[in-house]
């Protein structure tokens, strides 16, 4: 079955320190990968995506993510965390054409990021 | 542009009642979808549409109906509400189902079924 795993329910980071939010996937073929962020009482906002090309993709608000095909991972990173980065982060995957479910996004359960002053 | 709008923001229903959650977008997006968000489960796809007149089921379609008569609107109907449908519902849209454009989400509807 196709799935996305975010192994950490919560990540705690001190302001100014680097942060990593982990994501692994189980999808056949070459999926498209996404990160979204949700602030309290808001809808999800797109952060970045990986389709093809350079394994390191840069997105909004200084975030970046590294695609690792051999480890089927797509971890979200930021060199220096801000208190305002505190939010709920979702990894999502879209299967490639011909593998079924092409028109569907599969979301992970989410990871709550808490950045402390 | 208003983006993706959803009404109502909050709703309380009694078991067995029916209602429609409204979703509209003004970006001329072909693809629209409905998700429900439950704690610890992420977002799960209920129904989606790749264009006016075309809809399909997602991961958790039971108890919900959709229709897409126009490009702009994609209402979600709860036929007979059950406590298990207590959730936060999000509508989303994107440019095309054939290209992996990012999805734009509405602000959500928080539904409680008693």
Low-confidence stretches of chain B at least 5 residues in length (pLDDT < 50)?
Answer: none
Structural class of chain A: mainly beta
C-alpha termini separation of chain B:
36 Å
Compressed to H and E, one letter per element, the order of chain A equals EEEEEEEEEEEE
Oligomer: heterodimer
Q: Which value, in Å, is the CA radius of gyration of chain A?
A: 14 Å
Shape descriptor of chain A reads globular
Give the strand tally of chain B: 11
Total beta strands of chain A: 12
* Mean pLDDT rating of chain B: 92
> For the residues shown, what is the average pLDDT of chain A?
91
Give the termini distance of chain A in whole angstroms: 41 Å
Q: How helix-rich are the residues of chain B, as a percent range?
A: under 10%
Supply Rg of chain B. 13 Å
Give the topology, please.
The complex is a heterodimer of chains A (117) and B (114).
Chain A: E1 3-5, E2 10-14, E3 19-21, E4 24-26, E5 32-38, E6 44-50, E7 56-58, E8 64-68, E9 73-78, E10 87-94, E11 106-107, E12 111-116
Parallel strand pairs in A: 2-12
Antiparallel strand pairs in A: 1-4, 3-9, 5-6, 5-10, 7-8, 8-9, 10-11, 10-12
Chain B: E1 4-7, E2 10-13, E3 19-25, E4 31-37, E5 43-51, E6 54-57, E7 64-66, E8 76-78, E9 87-94, E10 104-105, E11 109-113
What's the gist of this structure?
The complex is a heterodimer of chains A (117) and B (114). Chain A has 117 residues and is an all-beta fold. Chain A has strands spanning 3-5, 10-14, 19-21, 24-26, 32-38, 44-50, 56-58, 64-68, 73-78, 87-94, 106-107, 111-116.
Explain this structure.
The complex is a heterodimer of chains A (117) and B (114). Chain A has 117 residues and is an all-beta fold. Helices cover 0% and strands 50% of the residues of chain A. Chain A has no helices and 12 strands. In chain A, strands 2, 5, 6, 10, 11 and 12 form a 6-stranded mixed sheet that branches. In chain A, strands 3-9-8-7 form a 4-stranded antiparallel sheet, with no helix packed on it. Chain A is globular and about 45 Å long. In chain B, 0% of the residues lie in helices and 49% in strands. Chain B contains no helices and 11 strands. In chain B, strands 2, 4, 5, 6, 9, 10 and 11 form a 7-stranded mixed sheet that branches. Chain B has a 4-stranded antiparallel sheet with strand order 1-3-8-7, with no helix packed on it. In chain B, strand 4 and strand 5 form a beta hairpin. The N and C termini of chain B lie far apart (36 Å). The model of chain B has no long low-confidence stretch (mean pLDDT 92).
